[in-house]
Structures are given as C-alpha cells and as structure tokens.
Write a structure and sequence with these properties.
- The chain is mainly alpha-helical.
- Helices cover 66% and strands 6% of the residues.
Length: 446
C-alpha cells in the first residue's frame, strides 16, 4: 500500500472530509483512478463522491467495469448525481459501460438519460436502425411478484410519474427477468392484501430488441395491445413499446412502401410541377398503343355481322355488357394497385389471388347476370340467356384481367397506374365483344 493510500484512508477514519476533498483534487487523474481502483467499495464511493463533476466523469470512464458497478450501486440513492454522471459521459464511454453492465443495472441507468442521450445510446448499443431496440423506451413501471396490491400501488405512485404508460405494469424477478405483464385494471380491482403473483397467469407477449419494427406492428395487430415489453436474448426486460409509437412507425412504413412501389417507375408525378412536354411524353406512348389495340374491337365486330343481322336486339345490350366488364376490371385493378403500393402483396401471391378473385368475380357476375336478365326479359326475352351468361363471363374475365395486369406491369417495372386502367378497359371491350357474340352464335345455332 502506498503512502498516498495510507494518508487518504487515515483522513476517512478521522472524517476529515474538507481536507480529504482538498487532497483528492490535488491528485492527477491517473493517480485518482489508481486510488479508487485499489480501495475498498466503501472507500471508492467516498472518494468518487468528493470529486468535482467534470473530473468525476473523466475518472469514472477510465475505471474497470467492476469498479464502475460498485460506484453505481453506491450512488443508487443519489439519483441526481448518478443522472449527471450518466448524461455527462461521452457517448462511446457510456455505451461501453452499458454493454458491460448486467441488464437490470443498464435499464435502470437508461431511465436517467435525457431523450437525446437515450437515442444516442440505443444507436451505439448496436440495435439495427429499423429495430425495436431503437423504438423502445425504458420508462415503465415494474414490480416484484411478492408485492401486495397495496405495495404495488404505492410503487406506482412513487415511480409512475415519468412512465410512458400506466396501462400495464410489468412483473420481474430479482434479476430483472420478465415474468408477466399485468393490466392496471386487474390491480385496481384486486384486494389490497392480494399478492401480485396470485394475479398473473405467466402468459406474456414480448418483443425482442433486435427484431424489425414491422414485427412489432404485426404483433400489436394480432394481440390488440396498448403496450408491449421489449427483452433481450436472456429475457431481461429492457423497455416497452407503446401503441402511439407503433402508429407512427406504421404510417412511416406505409409511406415508405408507397414510395418504394412508385419508385419502380418514376417518382410520383405532381401535374402542377411537371412540364407539359414531360406529361405528354409520359402519356402518349400508351395512348398510341391503345389506338392500335382498339382496331381489334372493330375487327371483332366485323366478324359477327351475320349474328347481329340475325338478332338485332343483341346490339341494345352490347354497351351495357362490355362496360360492365371494364368496370369490374377497373375495380379489381384499383384494389390491386393499392395493395401493391402498400406492400401487402407480392408476385409470389398471384396464384392465391387469382383463385380468390375468381370466386369473388363469379359471385359478382351471377348477381349482375340476374339483374341484366330481368331487364332483358322485358326488352328482348329471346336473348335473356345470352345476356345473362355473357354478363357472368365478362365480369369474371374483366376481373381476372384487372387483377393480373397491375401485377404483371409491376413485375416488368412499368407504371401500373398509368398503363393498366386504359389497357384493362380496351382488353375488356375486345373480350366482351368476342364473348357476347360467340355466346349468341352458339346458343342460337348460327
């Protein structure tokens, strides 16, 4: 033991605090670190508490992690001093400290950090940018399972002021491992002498700090929670995520997915900002394509002139039928473009989507077929079966086209919003004409 250590220990025994502080300040930083490192826990805490704030932070950063934990424990009842120490440390030193500390101690210290320092610390702790660890807050209320309801309520009154939410109280063991979460309602309705351990069911839904934030969104949807606990790989409670944070993330994800989707083509066009020449170039290509495609409509009509001459009444229902196919296709395409923009479906889902759309469109077609048959029964009874069956077929085909085209265009990195709507109408017109007159030709034996 050095003479310096002996001298300082003597001053502690004599309780000569003023002299001790004066002598301590005279030491260089390395000597102070050596003194604290080679002293008993109680002596180390005394030395540390007598250091000026700036020097204390510098010394603390250089101490061995075990000695840092000793000092933290010693300052546990001096929240303001501990808070100043944590917030004044360099971010990398503070992160290194948190990585060495037990989970329980780390999460307690995180509660003392300012919002800005907390954000920096979670970033440096290694949580990925879009992880739940970046989203969580350490401001929550936790109790032990042996607490009574009365003790729990006292604890909530004491520590709940700064909690992110009081809807849920978390139950942990002495090592800060999560046992359960307990709605505040259950606590308020229980007897004062009941134990917390008698109120919990040990069924708890948790989030992992390293999981993606989209996981949290889905879990909140599945379990309808207002808050969820966040744990590490050892089930140590690190923080909580609340529903308002999830709403913000969900909105950001939807916006990001939409822009990601629209980025497959050009950026979303604002017609007020775009030049006339740009808008012209953007639209003329597809319109010219559709001009030539529409030629097939006239060609299709010409192939069924004999049918039209034989049953003139067919012409009356032609616009109604082909427009119904186009409307069904446009409706289906609108729904598909929206789901693609939000990222709800992918190319791999096309088979399942096709099957479901077929069932829906068949039901729609049958309903619309019955309606048009009723009209035909008064206007042209002889073609009731033709218009009814045609309506079913046209709606089904139009819906299939409306669902598949946006999917195909997205796969080809073309703009589904610009291309699919007019293309669907045109294709539905052509197929509608072919289906209608082919159906009539078959049923009338022409």
């Amino acid at each position: 033991m050095t003479d310096t250590q002996i001298n300082f220990q003597r001053l502690i025994k004599e309780r000569a605090w003023t002299t001790l502080k004066t002598e301590l300040i005279k030491l260089d930083i390395p000597d102070t670190i050596y003194l604290i490192e080679h002293s008993t826990p109680l002596q180390s805490i005394i030395f540390f508490r007598l250091l000026p704030g700036e020097e204390a932070t510098e010394v603390f950063s250089e101490l061995h992690p075990d000695k840092q934990v000793e000092i933290i424990d010693g300052l546990a009842h001096h929240a303001s001093r501990l808070s100043d120490l944590m917030n004044n440390m360099d971010p990398d030193d503070r992160t290194a400290l948190f990585e060495e500390l037990p989970g329980k101690v780390a999460q307690q210290l995180m509660q003392l950090l300012s919002t800005e320092n907390l954000k920096k610390t979670t970033q440096l702790l290694g949580y990925p940018e879009e992880s739940i660890g970046r989203l969580m807050t350490p401001q929550y209320v936790a109790v032990k399972s042996h607490f009574t309801v009365s003790e729990t309520l006292q604890h909530i009154r004491r520590f709940g002021k700064d909690a992110e939410t009081l809807e849920v109280v978390y139950v942990v063991n002495q090592h800060w491992k999560l046992i359960a979460d307990l709605p505040i309602r259950d606590i308020l309705l229980a007897g004062q002498d009941e134990k917390i351990e008698d109120l919990i069911d040990h069924k708890v839904v948790v989030l992992n700090a390293f999981d993606d934030q989209e996981t949290a969104i889905q879990v909140f949807k599945d379990y309808n929670r207002v808050a969820l606990p966040v744990v590490d790989t050892t089930n140590t409670l690190l923080g909580v995520v609340t529903i308002d944070d999830i709403f913000d993330v969900a909105e950001e994800e939807d916006t990001e997915d939409f822009h990601k989707f629209s980025a497959l083509q050009d950026a979303v066009i604002n017609p007020l900002l775009a030049t006339a020449s740009f808008l012209y170039k953007k639209r003329i290509g597809w319109l010219m394509v559709l001009v030539f495609v529409n030629v097939f409509s006239g060609y299709a009509m010409s192939k069924f002139e004999d049918v039209i001459e034989s049953v003139v009444a067919l012409v009356f229902f032609l616009p109604l039928l082909i427009n119904s196919g186009g409307n069904a296709g446009s409706q289906s395409a609108t729904l598909m473009i929206r789901t693609l923009a939000l990222g709800d479906v992918r190319w791999k889902d096309w088979v399942r989507l096709l099957g479901k759309e077929f069932i829906v469109s068949l039901l729609l077609g049958i309903t619309m077929g019955l309606g048009v048959a009723l009209i035909a029964a008064f206007r042209a009874p002889e073609i009731v079966l033709v218009v009814a069956f045609t309506m079913v077929a046209i709606v089904v085909v139009g819906s299939m086209i409306g669902m598949l085209l946006p999917l195909i265009f997205t796969r080809l990195k073309l703009d589904p919003a610009t291309a699919s709507a007019p293309m669907i109408t045109t294709i539905s017109d052509i197929t509608g004409i072919v289906i209608y007159f082919s159906m009539a030709k078959w049923l009338f034996g022409l």
